[in-house]
Automatic annotation (TrEMBL), chain A:
Protein name: DNA-directed RNA polymerase II subunit RPB3 isoform X2
Annotated source species: Nicrophorus vespilloides
Pfam family, one: RNA_pol_A_bac
Transcription found in the keyword field: yes
GO CC entries: DNA-directed RNA polymerase complex
Every DNA-directed RNA polymerase RpoA/D/Rpb3-type domain range: 18-226
Family: Belongs to the archaeal Rpo3/eukaryotic RPB3 RNA polymerase subunit family.
From TrEMBL, chain B:
Organism this protein belongs to: Nicrophorus vespilloides (Boreal carrion beetle)
SUPFAM superfamilies: RBP11-like subunits of RNA polymerase
Protein family membership: Belongs to the archaeal Rpo11/eukaryotic RPB11/RPC19 RNA polymerase subunit family.
Protein name: DNA-directed RNA polymerase II subunit RPB11
Superkingdom assignment: Eukaryota
Coiled coil stretches, renumbered: none
CDD domains associated with the record: RNAP_II_RPB11
GO cellular component term of the entry, any: DNA-directed RNA polymerase complex
Subcellular location: Nucleus
HAMAP family hit by this protein: RNApol_arch_Rpo11
Length: 226, 117
């Protein structure tokens, strides 16, 4: 391997929702490509086909279909075994390429009925709306769930739909984007002069900066300032 | 109304090849590769890896038009080396680097998880 890099990785933070890590001995372009791939090319599951059987809500069919598509689904293990629908040999949908969801809510009492992700039923227990992960743990927080609201119903209004969730990635539609935010930082003290600070003292110092408390960014600029 | 289908950015048409090569006649040992249905994610990485090779005299890529999903990469090498060979080495090096990164990352994750528990 003539000119390959040998990157080394150190993880600083690791939670269910956040990973922070250092990567050394690699190119900037590789780090950027990893960032781009995390955003746009990691496959996830999201609802992609909706059939509405009954909709007497205040929102139109396509509005509700759009909202349902944007609901994030837990796709951890299923996504690697599932096939892309266009590659699957079946004609419409099957268990090898999709997961079926149903929603059936009718408001019968005087109070406003909130249709949330809790009402969305999945046929595969591994693929559920993300909010259902926390429902069983924090049953103490009764009034405060983080269920995603789809639509509000008045007495007599009904919403009944069937949907299929498919595998896809961010390039095709943002609903398949698994990340909330990806960022990377390099050269915290601007040693390489990739950027120019018009007013260096306005810019907060990075937590990885190697400068002292009172030194500000233009410590390097002063030497070359004309 | 005129929006192209979103899957066009990564699915090849019927008969479209992923990569095509054209010899550049203006200078010796130069070739222009057109890679379809790819963007900066791949182009920037390959271009940077090619520039690390001392036998590569010129390496540059561009996306001819943002609405057409392809990029063009021009490689010029020294006389004992062909651009095709340079590209193959660059790709092979990148694959090695990324698989090493994957290995080290999964190790680091496992270690961190074990330490957290």
């Amino acid at each position: 391997m003539p000119y390959a890099n040998q990157p080394s990785v150190h993880i600083t933070d690791l939670t269910d929702e956040n990973v922070k890590f250092f990567i050394e001995d690699t190119d900037l372009s590789v780090a950027n490509s990893i960032r781009r791939v995390l955003i746009a090319e990691t496959p996830t599951m999201a609802i992609d086909w909706v059939k509405l059987d009954a909709n007497s809500t205040v929102l139109s069919d396509e509005f509700i279909a759009h909202r349902v598509g944007l609901i994030p689904l837990i796709s951890d293990d299923v996504v690697t075994t599932l096939q892309y629908p266009r590659d699957c040999i079946c004609s419409d949908f099957c268990t090898n390429c999709s997961v079926e969801f149903t929603l059936d809510v009718k408001c019968t009492d005087e109070q406003t009925r909130y249709v949330t992700t809790a009402d969305l039923r999945s046929t595969n227990n591994a693929v559920l709306p993300v909010t259902s992960k926390h429902r069983d743990d924090d049953s103490a927080e009764y009034g405060e769930t983080d269920e995603i609201l789809i639509v509000k119903l008045r007495k007599g209004q009904e919403l009944k739909l069937r949907a299929y969730a498919k595998k896809g990635f961010g390039k095709e539609h943002a609903k398949w984007n698994p990340t909330a935010g990806v960022s990377f930082e390099y050269d915290p003290d601007n040693v390489m002069r990739h950027t120019l600070f018009p007013k260096p003292d306005e810019w907060p110092k990075s937590e990885y900066s190697e400068l002292d408390e009172d030194q500000c960014h233009d410590i390097f600029r002063r030497r070359f300032d004309v | 109304m005129n929006a192209p289908p979103t899957f066009e950015s990564f699915l090849l048409y019927d008969g479209e090849k992923k990569i095509t090569c054209e010899q550049d006649t203006k200078v010796p040992n130069a070739a222009i590769f057109t890679i379809n249905k790819e963007d900066h994610t791949l182009g920037n990485m390959i271009r940077n890896q090619l520039l690390k090779d001392p036998n590569v005299l010129f390496a540059g890529y561009k996306l001819p038009h943002p609405l057409e999903h392809k990029f063009v990469i021009r490689i010029q090498t020294t006389s004992d080396y062909s651009p095709q060979e340079a590209l193959m080495h660059a790709i092979r090096d990148l694959m090695a680097e990324l698989s090493l990164f994957q290995e080290r990352f999964s190790e680091a994750v496992k270690e961190k998880k074990d330490r957290l528990d």
